[in-house]
Structures are given as C-alpha cells and as structure tokens.
C-alpha cells in the first residue's frame, strides 16, 4: 500500500553539491514491526542533511535518490499492532534511531549505538516510489527512492517512522503551534545541549569556548548558561551571530574575521586575552581543522576538546604523544550530545516554557515550497536554524491536524482507507 505525498528528494550530487527537488511521490505505507505513520507539521534543516546529500553514490553505504530529513515534528496518523509509546493523534518530535539491544543502547547511550550509521545514515531502499519509471529486466517499474533516513525521512509530508525515533510530547506541549518551534530539538539542539551537560559535564568553574554558532553552537551557549559556567566564549565569523550569542548568555565573543582587512586573526591571542590559562571546555561545531587544532592547543591542562562538526573526509588530528600525556587533556567525539532523546527533549521543552531556552531567537520559518531559501540561507550563514513548514498556514492554525486526526483514527489499521 502507498500514500501520495510531497517530499524533497535528493538525487546524486553534482559538481555544485547536493541536488534536491520537490516531488510528488508515493510513501510505501505498510507498517513493519515498530513502525508508525507520521504526518509532518515542520522539519528542521540540519547541516548533516547537506553533508550527507553531497556524499558520492555508494560511499558510506549512501544511495540515491533518497528522502532525507531528521528533525521532524508532527502527528501520529497510524500505528502498528505492537506500538506502545504513542496513540493515533499524538504530537511527536522525531530524533535518531537506535537498536535498543547493543551494549551502548543497553547502557543508555543510544547515540553511540553499534548500528548508528546503518540505521541513520544509510536508511532503507524503496520506502518511497517516484512517479518516474525505470526500465528493469525489460519491464518498466516505478523508481524506488531510499527512505528511513535517521529512521524518519522527515522531508516528506507523510513518512513511515521507526518507533525508537519518537518522543511523545502530548503531556508537555502547551500549544499545538509550539510543535514546529521544537522540531530541531531532535538533533541540533539536543546535540549542543548534551555536549555541555552530558559529555563535558560543565559546571560553574568551567570556562566554555563554543566554536561555530549554528543551531548546535547556540544550544551549547544556552546550556552553558543553564549550567552556570563562569565564562562562556562564543566564536564565529559573523558579527550578527555573535550578537545573538551574547543575548543567549555568552559572556565574551570572538570574531575570527579581523576588523582591519590587512590584519591576521590570532586565535591564541584572542582566547588568552579572555582566559589566560585557556578554556576548560572547547566545543567545536565547525569541523575546520585549523580551529580544532587551535582549540586543543589552547585548552587548559585537563581541558576537554569535544568534536561535533564533521571534519573533512580522511582528516587526521595530529596529537603529540608526550605533550598530550603531560597536558591531561581529553579529545572526545560527540554524536547527538550522547543524549537519550526522550529525556533531553522533555528537559529542553521545560526550559523553553521557563524562558531559559529562547530558541525563537534562532529560528527562521520557511514554507516548504521555498526550501531553497533555507539551503541558500544556511550556506551563506544568514540563517542560524531553518524550519520548513509543511502547510501554507502558520503553525498556529492546527485545523488540518484536527480534521485528519479524526479521519485517520477510524482507519488505524487500514491506511488505504484513510484520506492520506
Ligand atoms: Zn544499539
Ligand atoms: Zn542533525
């Protein structure tokens, strides 16, 4: 069975990078064990979508065409007989998928699941069908499109999602319109928050340096304030972002583009002018090798460098053995802030309603049809966090959600009979 739906389809990248196009496709809607059907209200655009849309066909197990998207927010429209955590009509936020059975999953570290890449980056073949046809074995057939990206492929209005991705927010959501605002919590925001609270275990004696002020970096700044870090330094190349970081709790800012056109930025001097001993926690969200290396070098004794931003393929961080031993420093890789999504998202929503997590300052809402604006704005650094809206109306208008909830509730086990 399948459902007609709109989706952003990524095709094999060209010399200018990712190739995305808005298409009418069919979502294969037969629900396997542990799967549900979600109608998206909003989807955050994360840099990982851009990075993994630019990977050549076949590398890292990635194939095209595919539907990406891994910061979904929407409503449950159908469930399988064994679904436990949600009911039809529940509002949900979508996060990454994990197996639930490997050592790290059992130890409550699902972001380091042994099967993370396969479940999240590769996805599954044929979860959507294109209107285009392919000739196979002398017969034409509808072109298969890969889906289940991060277990969700939330760049489709309707998508079959794995239950392990779901965070049911029906008991904590105060206004339906807030669901779109919370969409990026499933990846960007929990990554930045978790880096500070779970990975670095930051406290009031810490000097926190956050490099790169996208959605992840800004969330780290806010988490640093929640954890009462005595100094929070935000570093970026755009003054506008540094201003936002100051409004979120950064005590100091560093612009890597010198005011004088003919001068050269001196990382060490800029950081030590604020904290002579160096920061105790350095969070890198840029993946720029020079910044990663300078961050490690400048960190204080026993300081932690937390690597989040994707470094270039094949890049090796050079660590001098003896110096590293005496420094007592740590270099820590970080995926999704080492979060358990249900716990992290529930906490972030609580902070939001307390006024301690003002994510509205970061977010630009963009109607789906103008998704190219999100890509261009992110690439140019003009947008900190883009959230695509699946309806023309503002997210405050929840009338559609209510009407389709009613219809689908009657057909929970029979998707073909529902409107969708
Ligand atoms: Zn696992
Ligand atoms: Zn992401």
TrEMBL record:
Protein name as it appears in the record: NAD(P)-binding protein
| Keyword Transcription recorded | no
**Which segments carry the region annotation Disordered?**
397-420
- Sequence similarity: Belongs to the zinc-containing alcohol dehydrogenase family.
Keyword hit for Isomerase: no
Q: Which cofactor does it need?
A: Zn(2+)
Q: Name one Pfam family in it.
A: ADH_N
Instruction: Return the Basic and acidic residues bias intervals.
Output: 404-413
Question: Any idea where the Enoyl reductase (ER) domain is?
Answer: 14-388
Domain of life, per UniProt, equals: Eukaryota
Keyword terms, alphabetized: Metal-binding, Oxidoreductase, Zinc
